[in-house]
Design a protein that fits this description.
- The protein is α/β, with parallel strands linked by helices.
- The protein has a six-stranded mixed beta sheet, with helices on both faces. A four-stranded parallel beta sheet has the order 8-7-6-9, sandwiched between helices. A three-stranded antiparallel beta sheet has the order 1-2-3.
- It folds into three domains: 51 residues, no CATH class; 196 residues, Rossmann fold, CATH 3.40.50; 97 residues, 3-Layer(aba) Sandwich (Rossmann fold), CATH 3.40.50.1100.
- It contains 14 helices and 13 strands.
- The termini are far apart.
- Helix content is 38%, strand content 18%.
- The longest helix has 18 residues.
- Helix 3 packs across helix 4, helix 3 crosses helix 7 and helix 12 packs across helix 13.
- Bound molecules: pyridoxal-5'-phosphate.
Length: 370
């Protein structure tokens, strides 16, 4: 169904006016029920959907009123084709993970799995935790973030500022140690809800029904030829590919993979995967089990990713390192597709402010005192 399209359904004694099934599933809209038959449908007051727990809507809960993030053409060097970049750093907490946090929590709330007494616990290297911290602050529920030691101080501060708790797990155990931490908490306390971003299909579903649809509406000619993303959980790449191909695009999925040389770099969720080659696929159940025919992999040196992120910042895009990675891979994909008119879409996942204490800024020659 198209956005905002209405659908009538008849059931004995009831007429249902449903605005958009995908919007309802994603929590962007509530179905309205008119009861009492043909006549009453014009006069009766709308009632809430009877079979679900209504979404808790504190009056300040603004995340339901947000519009799509912009999709803009970006070109770093003269003569190169533009890459269409989705400015996901403009989401409320500063990253694309706001989409999955809202979608997973709303869905769980409606199904009655999450309520006012719930404690949400999630493992991440930062962005997802910040998004859950914001979403839980809006819903008035507790959130505990499990992250490996060594994540940037900015992230810890943001999560705490939203009133959430932070539990740092041993650095050597990486993200797996954080996941174990959430599992232990869940076994010791029945109030704990685990979103499990690495395996929860609602993760990629959020991108399939929201982000992909926005991109289709915004892309020139309403078509996309290739979609490029780094993979942490795989939710972005898998969801975008599924959403775009379900809408009829012949889209090539492209994996942006950072290649490290010696030192481990802070490339957000891609960092733990590329630190140990091969871990990527086993970490993300979503990515590992997805059907991505014709998947291309673009390997990008971490120095290049950081350099491009700095160039994007100088152009006025306040992005983190993974945007540099995605952009570099998208440029490479444009070359390998070899079609001047190809519409290549990528994502700028998050904002630069959470990287002030990392290499992106600390070793940035442009910031050195003159
Ligand atoms: C900051 C950031 N957020 C999100 C993503 C995408 O992650 P996922 O595969 O978990 O959707 C990436 C990967 O490029 C990233 O670096």
């Amino acid at each position: 169904m198209a956005l905002g399209e209405r659908r009538w359904t008849w059931e004995p004694g009831k007429f249902w006016l449903i605005w958009d099934m995908d919007q309802i599933r994603s929590g962007l809209a509530q179905p309205i029920v008119y009861s009492g038959g043909m006549f009453a449908r014009f006069f009766s007051k709308p009632k809430k959907f009877p079979m679900t727990q209504p979404l808790k809507p504190p009056s300040h809960r603004y995340t339901h009123h947000l519009g799509p993030t912009p999709l803009v053409p970006v070109c770093l060097a003269p003569g190169e084709p533009s890459i269409w970049c989705k400015l996901e750093f403009l989401n409320p907490s500063g990253s694309t993970k706001d989409r999955i946090a809202r979608h997973i929590l709303d869905k769980a709330w409606r199904m009655g799995i999450v309520g006012a007494e719930t404690i949400v616990a999630e493992a991440s290297s930062g962005s997802t935790s910040i998004s859950f911290a914001l979403a839980c602050a809006q819903m008035g529920i507790r959130f505990v973030a499990f992250m490996p030691e060594g994540v940037s101080a900015e992230r810890v501060m943001m999560i705490k500022a939203y009133g959430s708790e932070v539990c740092l797990t041993p650095k050597e155990a990486g993200i797996r140690g954080s996941i174990e931490g959430t599992l232990k908490l869940a076994t010791s306390d029945p109030r704990v809800f685990l979103p499990k971003q690495f395996e929860n299909p609602s993760n990629s579903e959020a991108h399939k029904i929201q982000t992909a649809r926005e991109i289709l509406d915004q892309a020139p000619g309403n078509r996309v030829d290739a979609v490029v993303s780094g993979v942490g959980t795989g939710g972005t790449l898998v969801g975008l590919y599924q959403g775009l191909s379900a809408a009829g695009c012949e889209v090539v999925p492209v994996l942006a993979r950072p290649v490290h040389q010696g030192q481990t770099m802070e490339l957000e969720c891609c960092s733990f995967s590329s630190r140990i080659p091969g871990v990527l696929d086993s970490m993300s159940e979503i990515f590992r089990t997805a059907h991505l025919p014709g998947l291309l992999t673009m390997e990008i040196r971490d120095e290049e990713a950081i350099q491009i992120a700095r160039s994007l910042i100088r152009m006025g895009f306040p992005v983190g390192p993974s945007s540099g990675l995605n952009f570099a891979a998208a440029r490479m994909a444009a070359k390998s597709l070899g079609r001047a008119d190809a519409v290549i879409v990528t994502v700028f996942p998050d904002r630069m402010e959470r990287y002030f204490s990392t290499e992106l800024f600390q070793k940035n020659p442009a910031l050195a005192p003159r």
